[in-house]
Design a protein that fits this description.
Length: about 190
């Protein structure tokens, strides 16, 4: 393809391309282990262009974390809309839980989510991660009307499933692990009760 026949991308499209490349790179290597030149290579742009778009690696990582949290919020809103409008808090939480399975299948996003927690010692990242996690908690409260104890249980179960999926002992490509099978069976029983 000659340079004259290439399709030109808008700045927004190029920014989206860089953000997708960043999610992929951060998922693999975390915040500390990812270099902006690697993200640039994956996106097919120069490293200075990545910096021009996002400012710093820190800001790009925060943008990737926002992408993850936006996706979780989108999934929860869709799951709640699909549930009965008159659902009890318990039924609404179950609907959100079924939706969370979609997020767990999006492996790169869940890995960035976990890397976000690990990078929270950096004050700018930590402040942002804590604020976005709090926003997810408040969204669960808003969508379900559940009491704090049930929201805590829901969030704790979600984090357990996120960690187990990251370890590949839960999900469609799970590596067999008896302890994980036992926990997953117990979670299923609790959901059915």
């Amino acid at each position: 393809m000659t340079s004259s026949s290439r399709v030109r991308m808008t700045a927004t499209e190029r920014g989206e391309q860089v953000l997708r490349a960043a999610v992929s790179a951060f998922a693999e290597s975390g915040y500390a282990g990812t270099r902006t030149d690697e993200i640039a290579r994956r996106a097919g742009v120069s490293q200075p262009y990545v910096i021009r778009l996002f400012g710093t690696k820190q800001q790009l990582f925060i943008a990737a974390m926002h992408r993850v949290c936006d996706r979780i919020e989108e999934i929860f809103r869709s799951a709640r809309q699909a549930a009965d409008a008159d659902a009890t808090p318990e039924q609404a939480l179950l609907a959100l839980g079924r939706g969370y399975d979609i997020f767990l299948a999006e492996r790169e996003l869940l890995q960035v989510f976990l890397h976000g927690f690990a990078a929270s010692a950096d004050p700018a990242i930590g402040n942002d991660v804590r604020a976005r996690f709090g926003k997810v908690v408040e969204l669960v409260r808003e969508l379900t009307g559940a009491p704090t104890s049930e929201i805590r249980r829901f969030m704790a179960t979600g984090m357990l499933l996120t960690v187990m999926s990251a370890m590949q002992v839960a999900g469609p490509d799970a590596v067999p692990a008896p302890w994980a099978s036992e926990i997953l069976a117990d979670l299923l029983l609790a959901a059915e009760a």
